[in-house]
């Protein structure tokens, strides 16, 4: 059997939404609010969802919570979206999560960047290969944040695992991305700008065809406006969107992205869509900074 992964590849060449994981007053995952946030994304025109991404506080969720989030996403999407499930941690845990995603009917998994302090390039290949080989029916998307990794290593992985079809590239260097993509095979993979809208124009100019987004939780139309402009090669319009979101994304990126998720949840809270609480090592936004986020969110056509 030969799998071409055409629908999965098309889904990556789009706005790849990373839903937040809302928490109830008692600190548990709030299924009802999560479903409502997903419906808002789907009704807003989003067709690719990544449950258990970093904006979803992947590393702060328990294994059971990650399973729950995957199940809720597949159920709520009901075929309206391609599902790209975030998996990671140790190899057995990642494989178990990937197989769970497959059983539920998800089409792809995104393999989170290994957080082990000692990552060799050959070990990176081995790690991803073990996961990809466990779910050959699923498209596999490595999440690359390691600036030392070479494109040749990605090509080596794909030689062994043809289901490695896309890359979420999140090294903040457009020149390095351009070289990495060409060393790995520009046409071989779908290249997703993994640093979201702020980097999307520069990464698209170098070969990306999709971008991830946490901002999309707040304003789906803004993210869609940017990708429509980028697809048509209309960089002046794309940069107008960039200017519109600049301050919001600066707040998320400040202090080593300490408030990356916090700012998104604060914006949603200001709109009455979910609670603002995040889990350590993130922290809620101080009260004196909340008004600026609320003003930005209110100014968008949401």
UniProtKB/TrEMBL annotation:
Belongs to the DapA family. The keyword Lyase applies. The keyword Nucleotide-binding does not apply. Keywords: Lyase. It holds the Pfam family DHDPS. It comes from Streptomyces atrovirens. This is Dihydrodipicolinate synthase family protein.
């Amino acid at each position: 059997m030969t799998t071409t992964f055409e629908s999965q590849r098309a889904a990556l060449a789009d706005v790849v939404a990373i839903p937040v994981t809302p928490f109830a007053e008692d600190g548990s995952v709030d299924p009802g609010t999560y479903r409502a946030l997903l419906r808002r994304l789907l009704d807003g025109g989003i067709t690719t969802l990544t449950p258990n991404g970093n904006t979803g506080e992947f590393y702060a969720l328990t294994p059971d919570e990650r399973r729950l989030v995957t199940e809720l996403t597949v159920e709520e999407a009901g075929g309206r979206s391609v599902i790209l499930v975030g998996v990671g941690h140790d190899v057995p845990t990642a494989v178990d999560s990937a197989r769970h995603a497959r059983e539920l009917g998800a089409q792809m998994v995104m393999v989170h960047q290994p957080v082990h302090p000692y990552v060799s390039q050959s070990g990176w290949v081995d790690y991803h290969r073990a996961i990809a080989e466990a779910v050959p029916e699923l498209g596999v998307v490595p999440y690359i944040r390691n600036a030392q990794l070479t494109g040749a290593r990605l090509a080596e992985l794909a030689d062994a695992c043809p289901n490695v079809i896309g890359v979420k590239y999140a090294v903040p260097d457009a020149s390095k991305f351009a070289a990495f993509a060409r060393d790995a095979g520009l046409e071989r993979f779908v290249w997703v700008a993994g640093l979201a809208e702020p980097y999307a124009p520069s990464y698209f100019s170098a070969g990306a065809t999709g971008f991830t987004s946490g901002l999309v939780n707040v304003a789906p139309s803004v993210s869609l406006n940017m990708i429509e402009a980028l697809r048509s090669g209309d960089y002046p319009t794309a940069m107008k969107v960039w200017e519109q979101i600049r301050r919001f994304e600066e707040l998320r990126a400040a202090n080593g992205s300490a408030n990356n998720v916090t700012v998104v949840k604060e914006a949603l809270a200001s709109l009455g869509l979910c609670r603002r609480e995040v889990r350590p090592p993130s922290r809620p936004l101080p009260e004196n900074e909340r008004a600026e986020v609320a003003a930005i969110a209110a100014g968008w056509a949401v």
